[in-house]
Amino acid sequence: MKIIVIGNGMVSYKFCERLVAKATAASFEITIFGEEIRPAYDRVHLSEFFSGKTADDLLMAPASWYAENNITLHTGDPIQQIDRSNKTVHSFKGITQSYDVLILATGSSAFVPPIPGVEKDGVFIYRTIEDLEMMTAYAKKAKTGAVIGGGLLGLEAAKAMIDLGITDTHVIEFAPRLMPRQIDEAGSNILKAKLQTLGLKIHTSKNTAEITGNGCIDGMLFSDDTKIEVDMLVISAGIKPRDELAKLSGLETGTRGGIVVNNKLQTTDPSIYAIGECALFEGMVYGLVAPGYEMADVVANNLTNGDKVFGAYDMSTKLKLIGVDVASFGDPFVAGDNVRSVVFEDTMKGIYKRINITGDGKQLLGGILIGDAEQYNMLLQTVKNKVVLPPNPEDVILGSRGGESDGGAGVLSLPDEAIVCSCESVTKGMICGAVTEGGCETIDAIKKCNKAGTGCGGCVPMVKDIMLHTMKAQGKYVRNVLCEHFNYSRQELFDLVKIHELKTYDEVLDHLGKGDGCELCKPPVASILASLWGEMILKKGNDTAQDSNDRFLANIQKGGTYSVVPRIPGGEITPDKLIVIGQVAKQYNLYTKITGGQRIDMFGAHLNDLPAIWEQLINAGFESGHAYGKSLRTVKSCVGSTWCRFGLHDSVSYAIRIEERYRGLRSPHKIKGGVSGCIRECAEAKSKDFGIIATEKGWNLYVCGNGGSKPQHALLLATDLDDETCIQYIDRFLMFYIKTADTLTRTATWLNKMEGGIDYLRNVVVNDSLGMSQQWEAEMQVLVDCYRCEWKEAIENPEIRKRFNHFVNAPEVKDPTVVFEEMRDQKKVRDWK
Amino acid sequence: MLATIEKNITWFLACKTNDVPTNGGVCVKYNDDQIALFHFARRGEWYATQNECPHRQQMALSRGLIGSQSEEPKVACPFHKKTFSLKTGECLTGDECSIKTYEVKVEGNNVFIGVAQS
């Protein structure tokens, strides 16, 4: 059977993928004609183009995929005419080809309202990669921007403007609220407030009357006689189905656009189908990818003797708009006598939740979530499967308060036929089956097995939950193994390496693992060896098991040069030492910057120069700062009682003592500390892995704080400690962490996952509930005693020192591809593309 | 530079075997090109690829960790951990372009890399 597909977008691709998967070889001869010059790409994630993804990254499949599956793909060659009586199509480049079945997947174009001035330079639509490229080029000279359209696509376009560096952007919406199809007024207000904190200026009920400017846009005039000045405008006010070819061929189309189809997606000509955004089903155009995929599946199914029909599709959606969760599911607006709504609104945190339930409180009909959409998957399933609500329906959005259960029974309550991944139509039963029969024990394995979670990815947390529950139900012990080479968690491996007294990576692999190792297991094993035995990390062949930064004892930076960070304990440094840093930086032409941890970082050092740089620093009394390692970084301090009129104790001296105690200590992730001399907390100690704050009677010790992307304040472990007890507790705390945490887990996450939380941790560290304290303190003391500066050893050992060359066969030559540019009287590395 | 020519391949002396760390890599200069040379000692094998990671055009593969994925020997770029097959040069993580590979032979203590003549 000869099949021609017109259009090569996401739905067209999905149709081919489904057909190829269902069909036996050679039973179909598929030809695609696409208008764009690229094969189908992921339009949903178009804005990622700005965060570094390339056009190739966005492709649904590389061009070779089509060839491998015997599909002929003509790109840049739109079909211009369909001859229905002879069942042939004619392309722009002059190809004439006959078909048995024709698939219209022509998609949609941006709807451009007839506003005077839309033709001006600087006015864009947001639809294709080419549109994005033109926007990127124009944005370089633009300072202020605007987007017409406050719907889903409009807000995506606004994000694109922010990504392009135009933070001063207006969003203009004709309707009285944002995302009028998905959310209600109260939800819109919360969303508006959130977006405004990000710098967007939101105008609702605003009608653009004219786009002004001489040749290029310089402003916008509105029907209420107000105006704004803008350099650039993106119109994203909706879509218009591409039905012109269908119209020309005499197929029935809707009055407001769209190719009319029946529930098998057939047009008025039974051998021609229409799928995706160009199709009009029961008076509705579906502008989302999931229903488009469903249409593709229905047609592929029917062409392979299946019997599937398309039904009114659920338009529930969840997305992250400029960092704000927005979801709407089921019927978000339903109203009436026999319907009740439960609304939760928190204008402080920017959270809005609404659920619509039946009058008897038993069924969930739909709702809206803004600012926190964690319950989306569960709520959507509750609607779709008519799961009976708990006695207090508000529990499903607020969690149960005061009771033990967590509002609804979670994934366990879902029936097997519940569709968990709607992009790929994967049910809960299929996921359970992949675990029980397919032996899948990772998300990646499940993705391979049945494609769950490979579409929009929104269901991945739920897929993982179902997987873990199923594994637990089978009596499987769920744990985090390192990688394919070690069937152990980090904690298990730590104990085994200790028991077997293994000292090198290769010994560990030979005794406890299999294969040749990889980038996932080498660094954690090397770290375990360092934590256990305290030996120089580059000796005994362990150098090639260290991650690149540890291997060269410096942090690799853009361009392949390194940064150099000598230890400056507690942030205290003498004028003489400052001068040395200045001299070294000048001699080797290094960029200097003060770090967040009260040290000085020197960037742009060639690999070849590192030993000489360190030789000078060490001669001046510096030592390695371990900025490159998963190890103690700094113990930050305020100036303390020696100078400060509020200071209670000498925080600097104590910080130096602690930093020198734990310097070089290898751990699952980096460790930071802080000491503040009074309650004012100038050292920001509560954002550190361990923070010490002076009290009238001694020190308060806080643990497991974190800055970074998920900031978390450290929690109080013990109060009013003397110097020695405080260090004793930190010894125990760090050893407990090093022995039990998963790799690359900071103390905050470690505590968050710990059963019993801070109370349990306090029991272990302060009350010695495990009876381990003495042993841990002794082990820590051994590590403290065997500390030596790694850089000193590296420059004194010729075997290690010779590794610091870029070319093995031309040791004197530095990497010639490194290029620096000037900025504010210093150098910077040339940006990568 | 010591070089011999056979079947359109130029073999040049890259370095001595003990110049390359066990189970690690070094960068070799060949005219204006940079070649990453790896001693996969666990399998007694040698591999050579281009030194540039195609993801962000960084001269860094020789400083990456090597290992295997199932049976496939691979190198991970230190920058973003993109991994490439040492045998075929194919990218094993996502859709990055593949990398060029070279033949390696060891004679005595000498390591030679074979460069196809253009």
Describe what you observe in this structure:
The complex is a heterodimer of chains A (833) and B (118). Chain A has 833 residues and is α/β, with parallel strands linked by helices. Chain A is built from 26 helices and 38 strands. Chain A has six domains: 2-108 and 241-303, FAD/NAD(P)-binding domain, CATH 3.50.50; 112-237, FAD/NAD(P)-binding domain (3-Layer(bba) Sandwich); 412-470, Arc Repressor Mutant, subunit A; 490-546, no CATH class; 553-619, Alpha-Beta Complex (Sulfite Reductase Hemoprotein, domain 2), CATH 3.90.480.10; 632-785, Sulfite Reductase Hemoprotein, domain 1 (2-Layer Sandwich). In chain A, the strands form eleven sheets. In chain A, strands 3-2-1-7-19 form a five-stranded parallel β-sheet. Chain A has a five-stranded parallel β-sheet with strand order 9-16-10-11-12. In chain A, helix 14 crosses helix 16 (522-533). The radius of gyration of chain A is 31 Å and the shape is globular. The two termini of chain A are 45 Å apart. Chain B is an all-beta fold. In chain B, strands 1-2-12-11-5-4-3 form a seven-stranded antiparallel β-sheet, with no helix packed on it. Chain B has a three-stranded antiparallel β-sheet with strand order 8-9-10, with no helix packed on it. In chain B, strands 6-7 form a two-stranded antiparallel ribbon. Chain B is globular. Chain B starts with a strand and ends with a strand.
